[in-house]
Amino acid sequence: MKRLTPSEFQKSKIINQKSKMNIALIQMNPTVGALDTNTDRIISSAWEAFNEGARLIVFPELTVSGYPPEDLILKDHFCADCEAQFQRLKEELPPDAYVVVGSPIARNGKKYNAAMVFHSSEAVGEYCKMLLPNYGVFDEHRVFKAGTEPFVFDIAGQRAAIHICEDSWEPDGAAVASLEGRGIDLLINLSASPYYRNKLNDRIDVLAQTAQKLGTTLLYCNLVGGQDELVFDGASMVFAPDGSRLARAKQFQEDILYFSVPKASSLPRTAGLPRPPGVAFVPKASLRVQPASESRQDAGDTTPRKEAPLPELEEVYEALKLGLKDYVEKIGFERVVVALSGGIDSAIVLAIAVDALGKDRVAAVTMPSQYSSSGTLNDAVEMAAILGVELQTIPIKGLYDGFETELSRIWGADKTPGIAEENLQARIRGNLIMALSNEYGWLVLTTGNKSEMAMGYCTLYGDMNGGYALIKDVPKTLVFDLCHWRNEQSEAPVIPPSIIERPPSAELRPDQKDSDSLPPYEVLDPILEDYVENDMGIDGLIAKGYDEAIVRRVVHAVELSEYKRRQSPPGVKITPKSFDRDRRMPIVNRYRN
Length: 593
Fold this sequence. Notes:
Elements: H1 6-16, E1 20-27, H2 35-51, E2 56-58, H3 76-92, E3 98-107, E4 110-119, E5 122-128, E6 152-155, E7 158-164, H4 174-177, E8 186-191, H5 199-214, E9 217-222, E10 224-227, E11 230-233, E12 237-239, E13 245-248, E14 255-262, H6 292-295, E15 296-297, E16 300-301, H7 312-331, E17 336-339, H8 344-357, E18 362-366, H9 374-387, E19 390-393, H10 397-411, H11 419-440, E20 443-446, H12 450-455, E21 468-469, H13 476-488, H14 497-501, H15 521-533, H16 538-543, H17 548-560, H18 562-565
Parallel strand pairs: 1-2, 2-3, 7-8, 8-9, 17-18, 17-20, 18-19, 20-21
Antiparallel strand pairs: 1-14, 3-4, 4-5, 6-7, 9-12, 10-11, 12-13, 15-16
Helix pairs in contact: 2-3, 7-8, 8-9, 8-13, 10-11, 15-17
């Protein structure tokens, strides 16, 4: 890590005596449980920001442990090991800066989601999260106790308070109320807010309300990176006391958001709210990010940035890329493998995998049967060639014939082929790709989408085999949109247009189409969104105008397929309510409204 020489350190102190206080929000990508590595990165990033002139340095929620640590928190030794990192932080963080770091702590036998403030080689204070979310993907009541007291500290003559994520999501909640009337100049929010479509707009709305409610500048530092099914998209922000957004960091990548505010000593002193002795009152309207012409510091550029939000399809694509990349790399896989059928789902999975990991870390295998068309096989070969991916071809007809011969002794030679024979093909493919995974250590990426997973249009121990279900929360209509978008990003299409134009088919029987078994996706997906994500019942769906027969068919299929989904691999959360963490339904369930 970069350290300052005595002369450089003295220079930094001179910078710190000027009229502005420089602040850095460091949106970091930690790994759950990698305590030493996470702490190393906290220290090195803090020194980087300090050398750029920052004197208030903020990290996201639970950076030391990674987020979410889940039941690791129930292990007393885990929390003790997290707190053991504090000694390193006290000794190795820049001594002339206030550094705010998220970590679990244990106090009197209780575990807390906390923020620690370090300064001058000491831990000068701690704050325990007051509002513990217990909905959707969150289950913090299971492992943490709620804090009850606010924490306010003085920095450069300004009063700074701390919130952790949910605390600022309820403008009328207890955590905000605990700060009213305390003359807060800066509210620092350490966050680990996972991504779903359009959530950034939700964050902006609620954080702006909180900044307005307290009349304070709000500093929002969000986690970035993938963890199991969750993706954290960063986009750290600064809000003015009137709720306007002053600066924003990048999405889906590590970033340091620098900006500066005037020190209290450089502003007119105003009588008003009671203050601790020696602390000057700072008018809220005066707390602003400096214009670019004023904000360049001798030790670095702190010009406020307002990163433009990504277009919606690019945002989803980047979330899928980051979720896959971090899952693969944090676990330690070298390569992934995709069963490339020539259909649209495996096509988008292959494209994302290559974009996330590079072509040399992606393999593909096509496993044609007697029902596979020359068109899909040719498209699979063409796409692999376009992306430069290694492709193996393993025909399955011989294996299928062998299974059928053996099973006919039980089934009878005159049995009419049906679902069992169709699923047998999928299971042969599942065995083959898992054999490749075992032999070469490849992570198998399954290719089922949310529409199929919802309806149970997938085969246990067949196409559901694998280690990561990349698009399991991506509805089929969105799969089409992503394919079109991805092709528009290249001079020539990376996904052959015939893959997108061909009617979807599992190709497990002659002339099969998805529409033989499912409603058209443009009809199905809106019903699934309202039923699964918006929790509408049958009566409400019918009242909204959906066809009653289709509604009842869809609801029955969704509930009947819960046992399949419970056995599927994890995949990236994209929608507000995914099957993995958000929707928790009993497998045995007769309720159908």
